[in-house]
Amino acid sequence: MKTKMNRLLTFICILTAFISLLLIGCNNNDIPFDSNNLLKGVWAKAKHNGETITFKRVKSLPEKEYGVAFNDANIFIQKTSGFCGTPPLTFYDDKGTYNADKVLIKVQLDNFSGNFNWEIVSLTEKELVVKTALTEREKEHQELLKMYSIFHTIATSKTCENSNDWTYTNYGSKACGGPQGYIAYSKKIDVSGFLKKVENYTKAEDVYNKKWGIVSTCDIPPKPTNIECDNGVAVLKY
Q1: Which of 19, 68, 150, 195 makes the best surface tag, with the fewest CB within 10 Å?
Q2: Rounded to 5°, angle at Cα 163 from 160 and 169
Q3: Bridge partners of 37?
């Protein structure tokens, strides 16, 4: 009786292990090689070199490292630990869709408010090299950063020795309304030219917010009461 029971338990264990292997095999993101569509497949062993990422074709997505899969029906999967991962890293599948031609891969993730584009640098049977291609929104955001940097550089170009020589203005446009904040500037600079740059930035940010549906808090930044010089730097006081 014990022998029969032991045999039954052994059979159940073997059957369970076999079914588990089948389930793993059905869920390991294997994608058959397609010579007519070299992009389709699984890519991992990513190496970053400046702006480019080099992937190697693999059989299935790794469990504990970054990898991507371009499936049939334009399904995209990336094995990732997220953008803010710190050791020990936990990797998971982030899914979405993609569209691609010979030059550009456009990815839209299901759980990410936006998308990203990759420019194909080279693509062979065994290797995929891509570099980030900025989206229209990202390009416009970079332009905003440049505009901000220009007037911020002007505002901080003078040494603060006498606070009476300084004043301030509001800048930017929050999505919920009102300015982003205030910035101090010297009265000894080209004030009209400086204020025009601040105004242009504020208008551009308002257009950007409305175009892309940007969301922000609705709190109103406090207005400064005065300016003090601290080691040559103008400091706003509230």
Answers
A1: 19
A2: 90
A3: none
222 in the same domain as 172: yes
pLDDT tens figures, 10-35: 444 444 433 333 333 334 456 888 99
Find all residues with CB under 8 Å of 81, minimum gap 6, and list them: 66, 89, 90, 91, 92
Closest Cα to residue 206, out of 169, 182, 178? 178
Q: What is the pTM of this model?
A: 0.57
Q: Which domain holds residue 60?
A: 30-133
Instruction: Look at strands 226-230 and 67-70 and give their pairing.
Output: unpaired
Give percent of the chain with pLDDT exceeding 90.
Answer: 68
DSSP state of 126: S
Inter-residue contact 89 to 80 (CB < 8 Å): no
Cα 18 from Cα 38, distance rounded (Å): 33
Non-local CB neighbours of 166 within 8 Å, separated by 6+ positions: 160, 184, 185, 186, 187, 227, 229, 234
d(CA 151, CA 154): 5
Question: Domain end: 70, 105, 133, which one?
Answer: 133
Out of 74, 104, 133, a domain closes at 133
DSSP letter assigned to residue 141? H
Contact 208, 201 (CB under 8 A): no
Q: For residue 165, what are its two tokens?
A: 């020589």
- Look at 54 and 1; give whichever has higher pLDDT: 54
35, 125: one domain: yes
Residue 172 falls inside a structural domain: yes
Phi/psi-derived region of residue 124, left when phi > 0, alpha when psi is between -120 and 50, beta in every other case: beta
